[in-house]
Amino acid sequence: RPRSHTVTTTSSSFTADLSASSSTLAYDKEFLRTVPGLLMVTEIVLGLLVWTLIAGTEYFLYLGFGWVMFVAVFYWVLTIFFLIIYMTMTYTGIPQVPWTTVGLCFNGSAFVLYLIAAIVDASSVTKDLDNHNYNSWAASSFFAFVVTSCYAGNTYFSFISWRSRTLQ
């Protein structure tokens, strides 16, 4: 028995007008005037001090300083990333991401891991290891505790924001 073949075709013409793109990158210059914004800048500046003070020594000979370097560099890069996201207001263009929860998890984990790293840093600093590197290690330990307190403050503000379910 012969089969009948019916083919249906549809065509669509889609032309994108790329010149009429309305996606502009916003800039929130007021963010740096808020307490969380100031804390982020402080975290970046002092976090840079933490890892450069250690990187200028023979830290790789001592296991504790390797951990401090990892935490300091990891959270330094992520903090710069989040500062760019907040400054450019990228979070408004991606509403599927729960930014208040992400901010709380980021700052909370940074606080906990930086606290551990600061304790390890402080407990690893002794004059017996190497007199030449003592001052750099002691300074990095001090700044690690200051950065830890900054992340604690940002964790508090992130918690308040998460609790109220509004973006900062």
TrEMBL record:
Residues 31-163 form the MARVEL domain. PROSITE patterns: MARVEL. InterPro entries: MAL, Marvel, MARVEL-CKLF_proteins. Keywords: Membrane, Transmembrane, Transmembrane helix. GO terms for cellular component: membrane. One of its GO terms (biological process) is myelination. The chain crosses the membrane at residues 31-54, 60-85, 97-117, 137-159. It comes from the Eukaryota. GO terms for molecular function: structural constituent of myelin sheath. It comes from Pitta sordida (Hooded pitta). This is CKLF8 protein. It is found in: Membrane. It is a multi-pass membrane protein.
